[in-house]
Amino acid sequence: MCDTAKRGTLFVYSGASGVGKGTIMKKLVERDKSICLSVSATTREPREGEINGVHYWFVSREEFDKMIDDDGFMEYATYCNNYYGTPKKAVEEKLAQGFNVFLEIEVKGALNIIEKYPDCVSIFVLPPSFETLEKRLRLRNTETEEQIRNRLETAMREIKLSEVYDYTVVNDDLDKAVEDVLSIVKEVTGKE
Prior knowledge:
By secondary structure, this protein is α/β, with parallel strands linked by helices. It has 7 helices and 9 strands, in the order E-H-E-E-E-H-E-E-H-E-H-E-H-H-E-H.
């Protein structure tokens, strides 16, 4: 449950595509009611099963450009030819309500947040190996070979930047990775 007497903590949460960020996040939200996930806006098409307003706000390029013009994002970036951004107002409201808000964002956007919000806590999720990451991406069966190669090239660059983050968590064992992130939240917020 959130502590409405205390402002929440902003967490920047990143990792290469296919590392299991979303799976870990789902379990975090189930286990700790003080944690909420910010819903990003994107111009990419929804994948099967994704729900507008739950997984992402799926918007047109024109809508995204208008939000940029209106200073409506904490950050935004291009990733694999699509725009992604963190709507500012919703995050600020949740933090004021005492929630610990996780921004699940790609590295370029994360670096922008780390610079603009120096009090944020940053966590990077690593794969146990690059081979495991490639296998996970292929098993998703959601992208073309070219898109997979693109994601793997991007992952190499992103993993090198993990040293900029406050914490890293290896997702080799899902339950342990969830426990590791929960331990970080408890350490940072002083919550038992």
